[in-house]
Amino acid sequence: MTSVERIRFWVGVVGNVISFLLFASPAPTFMRILRRKSVEEFKPDPYIATVLNCLFWIFYGLPIVHPDSTLVVTINSVGLAMEVGYLTIFFIYTNGKGRLRIIGGLCIEAVIVGIVAIITLLLFHTHGARSNFVGIFCVIFGVIMYASPLTIMAKVIRTKSVEYMPFYLSLANFLNGSVWLTYALLKFDLYILIANGLGAVSGAVQLILYACYYKTTPKKTKDVKPSEMQLTSPNGESQPPV
């Protein structure tokens, strides 16, 4: 293992730790659901979407597609397991319509990943070709996930309040994107670079907004704390790692 490979490995380990914290960020939401035995107004859609994102990155990191990407596979496997756990809780406490939504979403995702996997293995026969094909899907879904905080950032600007944009979550998003961006640069990986470059920029913008509007945020107690928000929803959520 060369010095660059060794550095890249440890950068990836740090990325795994930060990414794990991001995957764990919805935990307060689900503790609340368990306490109240109701999903209230929370939606399962973000967690269903994150499952698809994890599945694509796991497939991308497999030796048959993109060798030497073990750390990408490990963290997204952990993330997948956690998202399935979140959806299981959702499934237990939601209504019939919500359960059908979860089952339907996961079935559609299984079909999509299955089709992409079959096409990849049958039509592309080199690591480079397979990485390019699967990487495109990873970037597409990464862009969608990293674009989701736009609504909460717009709300911060409109209300001049960061009440529903937790600082530590924004900081973690920035650090996560930055660490995996470094990982991608040490042994150039275009798709990890694009997905996490966007994550780093998104996190940086959130931190800038926080600095600008922190002092104008009303200091009052809410029934719903920022830590109990749907942290992986389109209304201001944590972004899944690579």
Structure description:
The protein is built from nine helices and no strands. It is mainly α and 242 residues long. Helix 1 (3-24) packs parallel to helix 4 (70-93).
Question: Summed up, what is this model?
Answer:
With 242 residues, the chain is mostly helical. The protein has helices at 3-24, 27-36, 45-61, 70-93, 96-123, 127-147, 150-159, 167-186, 190-213.
Q: Helical stretch count?
A: 9
Share of residues in helices: over 70%
Q: Over all CA atoms, what is the radius of gyration?
A: 18 Å
Biggest sheet descriptor? none
Low-confidence stretches: 222-238
Defining key terms:
242 residues; mainly alpha
Set out the fold topology.
Layout: H1 3-24, H2 27-36, H3 45-61, H4 70-93, H5 96-123, H6 127-147, H7 150-159, H8 167-186, H9 190-213
Helix pairs in contact: 1-4, 1-8, 2-4, 3-4, 3-5, 3-6, 6-9, 8-9
